[in-house]
Amino acid sequence: MSSKSKESHTYHRSSISLKSERRSRTARLIVEFPKPLSLSWEEPATFHEALALHMVRHGDTAGRLQKAITGPGDRTDRKTIAQWAMGAKTPRNVTSLEMLSRIERRYRLPEGYFRAKFPVTARASTGHAKLKSVSISERRRLAWHLPDDFDVRSPEERAEILSWVRRVIISGSTSYRHFQAQALKHRYALRFPELTGRNPAHHKVRDEDDPILLEDAACEAAAATTDAPPALAVEVGQFVRFKTATLTQIGCLRSGVWNEQTALQQIEYLRLLFGAFAASPSSPTAGKGVPHADLCMGMLIFPAVWDWYLQWRERRRGFYTAWEVSMLQLGLALTRIGTGWLRQHPDLRFRLRPIPGLVTNSDIETVQKDWEGACDAFYRFGFARANEVRRVARIHRDSFEPILPILEAESPVGEYRRITQEIVRQIPDARRYPLAAAEAVRSLLMLRLGLHLGVRQKNLRQLLLCPPHRDYTPERQLELRKCGELRRMNNTGAWEVFIPAAAFKNARSSFFSNRPFRLQLPDIDGLYEHIEAYVYELRPILLSRFEDPGTFFIKTVKRTSKVASYDQNTFYEAWRLTIQRYGIYNPYTKRGAIKGLLPHPLQFSLDLNGLQARGSGPFCCLGSGERMQTGTPDRRRGGPARPEAGRPDISGRGRSCPGE
User: Strand (E) positions, 507-557?
Assistant: First the structure.
């Protein structure tokens, strides 16, 4: 190598050394609050543009900013900050959000400046380090409702937040909800898979701290974990077929026919009754401990069996309710003269077995000798006991306590619509977050259609979708399937809901007069735009590549759940999740629409239209198919009766929707 080249090489090494020394000297000169190079700027609309702008204003690179805001234990690197500034990523976990707060302090920006420019993602913050003692399943439910600074708050504040979220949002904070949660912890009901259609091999056991909002009997029956013995299953199956068959079996008489929903309700009564007798006396359920092989329908003829069960339920709840009265009415129907199923099947007496403390061998011999007399004796007992229980029965669940803030508002429907407005505000960008956007729009349409239609949960979740430019499903076919259809009118472009009268629980009432329910949905607050976006773009995202059940509302199909159609439980869960996320105002996260609201199922919301338009409990019960005596007392909070409103105008074949 020549001397000239050596000098050049030496000079180059010296130059690199000087630059390196200069860079290291510059890196050490990091101030806490750098002076901005410019005091005026044009405010950007997005987070990454705002971050890049203020980094340039203060002369920061990604590496320099990373060194300025991180300490010895922090793991945020310069590549993460560079990706934020380029728009490739958005801070989501609590550690990244803390780094963002430090950047705001460094640049002397208002607190929450960058968070206000985040794109809506419908995702909760992750990485809470102070929840290690909480189960993973509960952590997922809590994440949405915890503030981003949860980890840096004092232990007392964290305990207060967790207690409030669990009590108000997760559980519901009513006495009935507490009873319901405790009931699900100790599972005792028996299952009849062939009658209920539930596969025992795939029955999902729920978390004990995540009760679903079902009716009293359905709540406890949903917790069933043991199949009924085969002999009992056969007897119950024969009884159900007797009450649901189109034609009565030759030689038998019956009074009334059960529809599908009534049959499921009566099966749930029997599941709970036999489950209580089969449960161990030493278990938390404190059952009777009858061997499974000894359980039979014939044992229901003994008054002592019913008396033990009634007192067991009273000890479990603390008082009697109308539920026990309904159960006794089932027993009366079984032994009614002429049409009672037990009375017409004396062969059941040969399967009777003694029950310690309740049924002796002598009692069995007496019944076997005189089956008719035993039925008469029980009928007298059941009639008298039902009157006694009815006299002292109390209401455990105030149906409208969860939505009391809405009922006390000047316009209940308008107040409830605030929830839908909150959903619209939080719908993510469908191009960037397609699945989250699809789920948010589905939640919005659930509430919107629930308020407009005022029908029961079954009618809403089974509502079919008729794709545009296709022939409508014939009315006769809808009657056979007992479901309605959402369709777009070819002549006007409006969306219409058509539900045959046969699809309703009270189809034979004078309210329907054998006419179908027809309603043209009003295009208010962009309803048609949301429906079309859901039908054409978002619903296929939820469905993925799995089979389309044809219903308007479908679940998010995942690997663990490949069935897209909703059932009773999953639809309740979807509605409840919507209320928890968007309806209940959370003072710690400042999210939610209504203060004081509690989780509630669809049924509690459907009669708001009737309350606002009629002010009459008896009338608004008709649209949802609820019994008058059940609906009237709980709806008196809706305001004074307005009889001048009258019945809805019935024109053409169909009826208009209450409250429209």
Answer: 517-520
